[in-house]
Design a protein that fits this description.
Blueprint: E1 3-9, H1 15-24, E2 29-31, H2 32-38, H3 45-54, H4 67-74, H5 78-105, E3 110-114, E4 129-134, H6 137-148, H7 152-160, H8 165-171, E5 174-177, H9 182-198
Parallel strand pairs: 1-3, 1-4, 2-3, 4-5
Helix pairs in contact: 3-5, 6-7
Keywords: ATP-binding, Coenzyme A biosynthesis, Cytoplasm, Kinase, Nucleotide-binding, Transferase
GO molecular function: dephospho-CoA kinase activity
Main location: cytoplasm
């Protein structure tokens, strides 16, 4: 039986790094952000629906999605964001689990779903286990400011807009502490893979 393992964390906690370490170890990882881009590519059902709701102003002359134009609309209007999620989430969900089913048929022991909003969008309900990558608040703030070249105030606002890390940790089956360096992180991921294989 293939186990479905959810992977999430807070912004700038190192979830993507953990995802990459898992891939390097030969673990199949399905990236929700990549899937989201796929369901919005030119001539896709997702993009057609987005244009129908938000109008042609969200399209580039190339027929691709104008992400900044769409972001401007949805991040200033909760109702618009809700509409966008109603269009995209079912498509993303179906595409993720279609990929997971293909891997299951190959008899792979476990598949990792890398989903930033795992709990918020209830993907945890379809997972056998959930991994949360976390850091202490100071480290998270420092990394976010360095990564996105934003002010302390902007970084704090972005962190505050997310589900608190402490809540995610409380719901996790496995926790990865990413306060240290890359070596410490790789050791934890290697240990985690062993634990998952033993389950």
């Amino acid at each position: 039986m293939t186990k479905i393992v959810g992977l999430t964390g807070g912004i700038a906690t190192g979830k993507t790094t953990v995802s990459n370490i898992l891939r390097q170890a030969g673990i199949p990882v399905i990236d929700a952000d990549q899937v989201a881009r796929q369901v919005q590519k030119p001539d896709s059902v997702g993009l057609t629906r987005i244009v129908k709701v938000f109008g042609p102003k969200v399209l580039l002359p190339t027929g691709e999605l104008n992400r900044p134009a769409l972001a401007k609309i949805v991040f200033n209007d909760k109702e618009a964001l809700k509409k966008l999620n109603e269009i995209l989430q079912p498509l993303i969900y179906d595409a993720i689990f279609a990929q997971a089913d293909t891997l299951k048929k190959r008899g792979i022991p476990f598949v990792v779903l890398d989903v930033p909003l795992l709990f918020e969008q209830h993907y945890d309900e379809d997972c056998d286990y959930v991994i949360v990558v976390y850091t202490d608040p100071q480290t998270q703030l420092k990394r976010l400011m360095a990564r996105d070249h934003c002010s302390k105030k902007e970084a704090q606002a972005r962190i505050a807009a997310q589900m608190p890390l402490s809540e995610k940790e409380a719901l996790a089956d496995f926790k990865i502490n990413n306060n240290g360096d890359q070596v410490a992180l790789q050791k934890q991921v290697a240990s985690l893979i062993k634990q998952l294989k033993a389950k």
